[in-house]
Write a structure and sequence with these properties.
Blueprint lengths: L4 E11 L2 E9 L2 H6 L3 E11 H24 L11 E2 L4 H14 L3 H16 L3 H5 L5 H12 L20
Antiparallel strand pairs: 1-2, 1-3, 2-4
Helix pairs in contact: 2-3, 2-4, 4-6
C-alpha cells in the first residue's frame, strides 16, 4: 500500500475583507498557492496522510482549548468566516503548530502529550504540575502544553481587532 502525502500548513487569508488564519491539509502545494482566499503561507510540511490528520487534530484541540479559556474569561475574539480568529497572533499559532509537529516525531512523547492535551480540555494542568503525580518528561511536557494555553489579548474589550495586514 502506497503512503499518500499531504501538506500540513498554516496560512493567513481574507474573505470579504475579514482576516483569518487557516491551519489545514491539502494534497498539493499548488492548491495552497492557488487558493484565492489565502494571502501568505507561514508553515508548510509535507507528511503522511495519517500523520497530517493526527497533528491537525491536536492543533485544533489545542486551539479549541485556548479559545474556550478566553471565552470563559470574557475575552471574546472576532469570528472569522473560516479558520481561526485573526486576533490570535501569528507567533502563538506558530508555536502551537511547531510543538505538535515536533512531538509527533517521537511516539512516546506524542502519546503522552496528546493525553495531557485531552486532560487540558477539561481542567488546567497546573494542579497536576504542582503535585508530585507526574515527573520527568511528562511534567516538562505538561508545562509546555500549559504554556501553549497562556495567550491573553492585551485588551479584554469586545470587538477589538487587529488591523488586517492587507490594508
Amino acid at each position: 500500500m502506497k503512503t499518500r502525502y499531504l501538506f500540513l500548513f498554516l496560512a493567513s487569508g481574507v474573505v470579504n475583507d475579514k482576516g483569518f488564519w487557516l491551519i489545514g491539509i491539502k494534497d498539493s502545494d499548488k492548491k495552497i498557492l492557488d487558493d484565492k482566499n489565502l494571502l501568505e503561507c507561514h508553515r508548510k510540511e509535507l507528511i503522511g496522510e495519517e500523520s497530517a490528520k493526527e497533528i491537525l487534530n491536536a492543533i485544533n484541540l489545542n486551539l479549541n482549548n485556548l479559545t474556550t479559556d478566553l471565552k470563559k474569561n470574557h475575552m471574546l475574539l472576532d469570528q472569522p468566516p473560516i479558520g481561526v480568529s485573526f486576533n490570535i497572533p501569528l507567533s502563538v499559532l506558530e508555536k502551537i503548530f511547531d510543538f505538535w509537529l515536533e512531538k509527533y516525531k517521537n511516539k512516546e512523547a506524542w502519546e503522552t502529550c496528546f493525553g495531557l492535551l485531552k486532560i487540558r480540555k477539561r481542567v488546567s494542568l497546573a494542579n497536576i504540575i504542582n503535585s508530585d503525580s507526574i515527573k520527568g518528561d511528562s511534567k516538562k511536557w505538561a508545562l509546555d502544553i500549559e504554556e501553549l494555553h497562556t495567550y491573553r489579548p492585551n485588551s479584554i474589550e469586545k470587538n477589538i481587532q487587529n488591523d488586517p495586514m492587507w490594508r
